[in-house]
């Protein structure tokens, strides 16, 4: 598929986050895979396309020069997560960025200005005069590194790189530039909070096409261009800018469903789950409600814990009837709002246990292990209810991973059981998914997933209760529908669209119409 689409044109992928962080621990080399939708989705894709991936080298500066933060490292397939496939692998080209620059462009402009604005959170927006110049400088460096790789096609990822397309366009007017924006795009009334709204949009209009998860986000982007870039003309066939037409298209990202399903069936998944049940003394007969999140205020973890607390206060008979397992990962700890959020989550869990726990029941447990994909799939697989309650989220891959890890339910399970037929999933009753209405994934997964408004605590609590009490036939029916949706919009479908767009195929214009 990839060779057909791109021919022999050279591809350079540019993202802020690198897919593998190398370091040293006790004198031994280590490698970690950062949590995040972008790297999870793209590693497999780039392993298949080959080419160069330019990213900030966030690992140990004193590490082996072959993989130093400013070095290039070859990642053959066996060193990527795609070790079971015959794929070319790729070159990871790392950018060594000074600490002060990282503080101001990554912790600063990207995550204290753009991230909250795109997620419709005005309160955490912090504007510091050093942020914007640093963002410009970092984008210039990413652009230079991309141009050094002599690309025919450049594929930018996300909101850290809003200006890089303009810089690459200046150096390589002939190259085809495409960007995928992995977070929501707000309406003009909200985007107006961004002090550099016009400059940022002009940077992005250096691309030939800009992609979003939902048509709603693409429409907001076009509306922002119409409002804030007076020299651009928004037409039915695209945005006319600087003598070119820029497409704004929608393409929902998905996951590698087969891979997640296989991970969930692996021995490593089962062993990890055994370790967790031992460590926390989880009763196998007590349903598990699961949350898996980067501890980001947009993920609605505090709202979820408030809903659980409300559930136990208003339904005392549920005491001892389930355990909430929170798998957390600390994130962006250089930002005070994130450190406070981490503390708030830990405090809420401790309070839930103090107020509602008994000698033989701990209502909520918190896990912060570094897990690999198989171990994570072990958590998904064994959950009876998963709760994704983001206040706002571009897509949310956790919801899709949970669904794929549940195993394939037998079609018409209720009927099959009535007839005494065996189900291939007979050892497990599928889990139920409670899903925020405010995530991109809700567009395809609700109403088979139970929709919630995370701000509405009592209705949220009631929905968790409904999920816990859901009978087996309904769980099968809903899971069947969820799995069909997750398979339909999987990573291959997303990749096929991106390759069409990168290749400049006619579908691009169609996608924009
Ligand atoms: P985001 O991109 O904002 O982090 P997504 O839900 O789209 O949110 O993607 C998160 C990715 O990171 C998923 O692939 C998920 O497996 C992984 N992830 C999220 N939280 C954790 C966690 N606590 N532990 C391990 N992996 C996590
Ligand atoms: O998916 C959105 C996203 O911001 C990615 O760009 C990013 O890699 C991920 O969330 C995790 O955030 P960070 O890279 O800041 O750890």
From TrEMBL:
This is Trehalose 6-phosphate synthase. One of its GO terms (molecular function) is alpha,alpha-trehalose-phosphate synthase (UDP-forming) activity. Pfam families: Glyco_transf_20. Residues 65-89 are annotated as: Disordered. It comes from the Archaea. Gene3D superfamilies: Glycogen Phosphorylase B. One of its GO terms (biological process) is trehalose biosynthetic process. It comes from Halolamina pelagica. Residues 71-86 have a biased composition (Acidic residues).
């Amino acid at each position: 598929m990839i060779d057909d689409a791109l021919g022999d044109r050279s591809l350079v992928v540019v993202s802020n986050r690198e897919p593998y962080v190398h370091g040293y621990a006790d004198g031994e080399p280590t490698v970690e895979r950062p949590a995040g939708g972008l790297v999870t989705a793209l590693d497999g894709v780039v392993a298949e396309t080959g080419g160069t991936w330019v990213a900030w080298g966030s690992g140990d500066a004193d590490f082996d020069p072959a993989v130093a933060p400013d070095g290039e490292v070859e990642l053959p397939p066996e060193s990527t997560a795609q070790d079971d496939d015959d794929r070319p692998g790729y070159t990871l080209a790392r950018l060594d960025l000074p600490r002060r620059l990282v503080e101001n462009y990554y912790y600063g402009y990207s995550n204290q200005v753009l991230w909250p604005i795109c997620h419709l959170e005005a309160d955490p927006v912090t504007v510091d005069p050093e942020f914007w110049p640093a963002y410009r400088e970092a984008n210039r460096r990413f652009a230079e590194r991309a141009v050094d790789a002599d690309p025919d096609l450049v594929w930018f990822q996300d909101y850290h790189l809003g200006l890089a397309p303009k810089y690459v366009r200046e150096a390589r007017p002939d190259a085809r530039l495409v960007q995928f924006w992995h977070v929501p795009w707000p309406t003009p009334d909200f985007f107006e909070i961004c002090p550099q709204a016009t400059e940022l949009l002009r940077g992005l209009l250096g691309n030939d096409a800009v992609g979003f998860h939902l048509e709603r986000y693409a429409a907001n982007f076009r509306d922002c261009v119409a409002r804030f870039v007076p020299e651009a003309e928004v037409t039915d066939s695209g945005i006319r800018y600087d003598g070119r037409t820029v497409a704004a298209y929608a393409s929902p990202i998905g996951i590698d469903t087969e891979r997640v399903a296989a991970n969930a069936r692996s021995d490593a998944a089962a062993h990890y789950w055994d370790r967790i049940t031992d460590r926390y003394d989880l009763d196998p007969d007590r349903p598990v409600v699961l949350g898996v999140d980067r501890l980001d205020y947009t993920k609605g973890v505090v709202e979820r814990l408030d809903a659980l607390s409300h559930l136990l206060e208003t339904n005392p008979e549920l005491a001892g009837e389930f355990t909430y397992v929170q798998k957390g990962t600390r994130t962006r700890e250089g930002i005070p709002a994130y450190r406070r959020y981490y503390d708030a989550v830990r405090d809420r869990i401790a309070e839930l246990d103090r107020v509602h726990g008994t000698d033989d029941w701990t209502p909520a447990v918190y896990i912060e292990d570094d897990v690999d994909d198989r171990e994570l799939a072990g958590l998904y697989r064994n959950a009876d209810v998963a709760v994704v309650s983001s206040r706002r989220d571009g897509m949310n891959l956790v919801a899709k991973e949970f669904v794929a890890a549940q195993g394939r339910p037998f079609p018409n399970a209720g009927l099959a059981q009535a007839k005494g037929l065996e189900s291939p999933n007979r050892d497990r009753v599928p889990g139920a998914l409670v899903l925020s209405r405010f995530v991109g994934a809700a567009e395809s997964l609700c109403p088979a997933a139970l929709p919630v408004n995370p701000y509405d605590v009592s209705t949220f609590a009631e929905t968790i209760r409904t999920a816990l009490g859901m009978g087996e036939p309904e769980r099968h029916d809903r899971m069947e529908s969820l799995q069909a949706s997750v398979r339909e919009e999987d990573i291959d479908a997303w990749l096929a669209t991106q390759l069409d767009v990168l290749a400049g195929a006619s579908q691009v214009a169609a996608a924009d119409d």
